[in-house]
Amino acid sequence: MAPSPLSPLRKALRPYRSVFVVYDRNVEAWARQIAALRPGAPLFALTADEAHKTPETALDICRWLLVQGADRKALLLAVGGGITTDLAGFAACIYKRGIHYANVPTTLLAQVDAGLGGKTGANLDGYKNMVGVIRQPEFVCILPGTLETLPDRAFRSGVAELLKTFLIGDAAAYEKAVALLRKGRPAPDDPELGGLIRRAAAIKQAIVDCDEQERGRRRVLNLGHTYAHALEWYQQTHRCADPLTHGEAVAVGLVCAARLSERLGLAQEGLARRIEDDLRACGLPTALPCPEEALEEAVRKDKKAEGDQVCFVLLRSIGHVVLKKL
Fold it and tell me: Has this prediction a pTM greater than 0.70?
């Protein structure tokens, strides 16, 4: 008989006396299966969108933990995408000055990026991730079957972060990923997809391990995100009817970063067009939905801003990035 896909998670939960599960409403069936590994584990449902990614939601989780009687040895288990893992991790960091937390990322974006690395936090007044703590989770358990829950648009959102990671550190994996994803959406158990997810996670973890607090090298993981976060601020403050997802905004940001790299003479001409063509072939948007100057206020308030300068991540070539203050 084949082992249960939840067997690794069951083993990981054994050391913890009490487990509390915070989950995205979109993956309730998975969350209940996971909670059943520890009968009686309480569950807290989140509306996982940018409008609810606020300090108040994190405090609601803390209030719930207090009512449930969670002590400092409790484990808060996040089941969902990046918004869920960010909020639950932030709540765990501030509740009783810190309890254990762990992640079960259920989106491609969270499996290759947001659920890894220990960044937790919330938005503040529409600005992305302005409050938060960096603290590593106890563990991250990736369950391939959870990708079945994703609508196609959400899956493609994760594709943007997958390709971003390879643009930073692995040209060969970038080529493989584009070739696979041009064909359409792979099955969750596709071995090639699984290998790419593992490779992206390994690249990110290696960068985090050498610079956990993001004082140097870890900043390269923000490739495409200066524009992406500004776009998300613009969309929220202008109440756009059909806003880009985070991954879609990152895709647009990658093209903007590549074009800026060419303008500054860091990258050869044609790199931006190639990346744009690859992203479009994978079903992602590549054009700014607003005038670039409309993003200036948000760029200046980016958490990577230092005085009158912003630290941009720019490309020299696929697999090779540099940090530059502008």
Answer: yes
